[in-house]
Amino acid sequence: MAEPKRNDDSMDATPNVTEVETADAATVAESVAAIEAPAQRGEPILQVRNLVKHFPLTQGILFKKQVGAVKAVDGVSFDLYQGETLGIVGESGCGKSTVAKLLMTLEQATAGEVFFKGQDITRLSGRALKAVRRNIQMVFQDPYTSLNPRMTVGDIIGEPFDIHPEVAPKGDRRRKVQELLDVVGLNPEYINRYPHQFSGGQRQRIGIARGLALNPEIIICDEPVSALDVSVQAQVINLMEKLQDEFNLSYIFIAHDLSIVRHISDRVGVMYLGKIAEIGTDTQIYDHPTHPYTQALLSAVPVPDPDAREGRDRIILSGDVPSPANPPSGCRFRTRCWKAQDKCATEVPLLAIPERFKGTDGHTAHESACHFAEERDVVHAA
Amino acid sequence: MTIIDHTTADVPSPHGSPEDSGPLLEVRDLHVEFHTRDGVARAVNGVNYSVSSGETLAVLGESGSGKSVTAQAIMGILDMPPGRIPQGEILYRGRDMLTMSNEERRLIRGQKIAMIFQDALSSLNPVLSVGYQLGEMFRVHQGLSKKEAKAKAIELMDRVRIPAAKDRVNDYPHQFSGGMRQRIMIAMALALEPDLIIADEPTTALDVTVQAQVMDLLAELQREYNMGLILITHDLGVVADVADKIAVMYAGRIVETAPVHELYKRPAHPYTRGLLDSIPRLDQKGQELYAIKGLPPNLTRIPAGCAFNPRCPSAQDICRTDIPALLSVTERDGTELPGRGSACHFWKETIHG
Lengths: 382, 353
Ligand SMILES: Nc1ncnc2c1ncn2[C@@H]1O[C@H](COP(=O)(O)OP(=O)(O)OP(=O)(O)O)[C@@H](O)[C@H]1O
Ligand SMILES: Nc1ncnc2c1ncn2[C@@H]1O[C@H](COP(=O)(O)OP(=O)(O)OP(=O)(O)O)[C@@H](O)[C@H]1O
Ligand code: SF4
Ligand code: SF4
Ligand SMILES: [Mg+2]
Ligand SMILES: [Mg+2]
Prior knowledge:
Oligomer: heterodimer
CATH superfamily of the largest domain in chain A: P-loop containing nucleotide triphosphate hydrolases
Number of helices of chain B: 12
Strand order of the largest sheet of chain A: 6-7-8-3-9-10-11
CATH architecture of the domain at 1-112 and 237-281 and 290-353 in chain B: 3-Layer(aba) Sandwich
Distance between the termini of chain A: 43 Å
Number of helices of chain A: 12
CATH architecture of the largest domain in chain A: 3-Layer(aba) Sandwich
Strand content of chain A: 15-25%
Helix content of chain A: 25-40%
Strand content of chain B: 15-25%
Shape of chain A: globular
Number of strands of chain B: 12
Radius of gyration of chain B: 21 Å
Structural class of chain B: alpha/beta
Order of helices and strands of chain B: EEEHEEHEHHHHHEHEHEEHHEEH
Bound molecules: adenosine-5'-triphosphate, iron/sulfur cluster, magnesium ion
Number of domains of chain A: 2
């Protein structure tokens, strides 16, 4: 982390220009203040603050020596409110699944905090951690490999009860599992069947039923529909929305497919190389993106309807994503950004509402980590 | 009304050169079945399609509808047994590959037709360098020396825009990102300058920015070499960008064919309409997503009549008894719509209704 810490460019003194690689306390406070939610949403159920995960890179067989680190997640902050869906998008390898695992406490954070109803879960252990885990559940990507082929559907959905028997006492389990099957639209009589006897969409429903078993408040979905074709995908998405209304669930929805994310999300965060590049409501991100990476990502989405495609502004990025073990200095996107200037190499752009849009009530006034943020509509036909 | 089941919808291609008039590859009434413990699974039930030089045919359809199995039959890589081809023809430049001599068939499949698989990581050998695997094509098929083959490999890596190809030729597959591995697979398919490439979900595992790069590359190389391309996918967006014509499959049959733009504007089959209606939109936020109700058919017990009838909102009695043939689709006044066909008893109501 021998990045240039600051570069005092007095000619260009925008307030938020400097940030240390892993943001220090002051900048964190600042970026938190910027995450201002509309009043009616109340307290966030989950507050993520400057979350960091570095995987050590080691060399040597006998004596392992750390030679560096994969900076998979490098200072991520966001809020999640009760009953809302926050979508997370970004290129392969940008750290989406690692964020999910940190929130699930399946990975130990290198730094940062995750507050669940005000309590920092990265510091919990034992009984307190177990109680929190019950409230945050996960639905995995691949309906073909994530279910144990040797267990019946009843055993798969009921498995969480082994860890949390207080939710369903032994004698009550079968009935509970059948209830869950019914909730996700599967025939309760299927309880003794094995996963291979179901289609992809049905298997994904099994995964959702399992995620619901412990009555969690938050469900983290990591690419829950990527392996499904559009007609099956629509069935699963509709089910998830119905369950959200019914149980007032909060979702974090990670996906490659930007159209699906727009459909299901209230707010969307765009990640690039371990950081959030831009975050806002679905309208702010899709109709008024201000970060060049978001614009490139959106413009690359293939749109089926030929009429909607005519006159669309397509930005094709050159080059590959840099290695997260050795991210570019300053703005991480600068090696592929067509707008990059000298400043982008020396100063890390902070995730905040850009100064020039502050106080305006248009949709451009949302957080974007770019020195030269400006609106560009890439989704709608010109 | 013409029955086009056995002549195959042939959309004139903008790139088609006049000297090679007939299609490059034509699949006629192809059937494939698998003998399983639960009975005979009829995966492909009379597929017809064709592709000419310089043309891109996209094959679309539900998971399990037989898209990959058809491609495997063309490439001669079906699992036989349990697979069997009880009926059908696969014509390469007019000659049936299923009946020609082994020798001749091997030559065509080795050099004239190449396939790109969905999963680049598992189709590359992890213990051999990428350059060695690319070079192998030239050593085996053209008898080049090790050194010549390596030079060719570097040239190909350049061609598919792998940066610093010279330095990376000795790297192993795991040292490349997903997008780069997929480009290596394209390089491998291009090595012998085939006439036809079959790409089975070439971008499904990639995210949108890399997807766009890979598809653009494929389209550019196709133009340059005037190759035919069969693109199998369930991503309707990818199809719209590159294909000339589309064939939609359901339960092992082609249920609709159309030039790419027309399919989106006016589908002539209820299954296609259902698919199009299920796609969420990027430029607006809708209400509940439309979803085709019900489940895909069990291939050991395909419903009588139209295979789609248990899920079709327009099904009538005839749909439960008579199999609809793939008929050409016309305007209301009978004007021909070139290249369009639908296997639905009620195609008129569907497209004009
Ligand atoms: N256990 C690990 N050890 C070392 N590096 C890891 C580990 N897990 C993830 N990484 C690296 O961290 C980065 C982020 O990975 P992550 O799985 O979070 O990406 P992602 O955004 O979910 O990507 P995808 O869309 O492909 O699923 C990648 O470069 C990955 O190689
Ligand atoms: N070796 C095999 N033995 C038995 N059945 C098989 C075999 N290979 C394929 N099948 C069956 O043939 C049917 C068609 O499979 P195919 O792989 O062609 O589907 P697809 O249209 O490519 O679907 P997807 O979009 O999921 O790749 C499936 O129901 C599959 O289970
Ligand atoms: S800060 Fe500079 S390099 Fe980064 S996105 Fe903005 S213009 Fe591009
Ligand atoms: S033939 Fe009948 S069941 Fe089949 S798609 Fe047409 S209307 Fe529907
Ligand atoms: Mg992931
Ligand atoms: Mg397939």
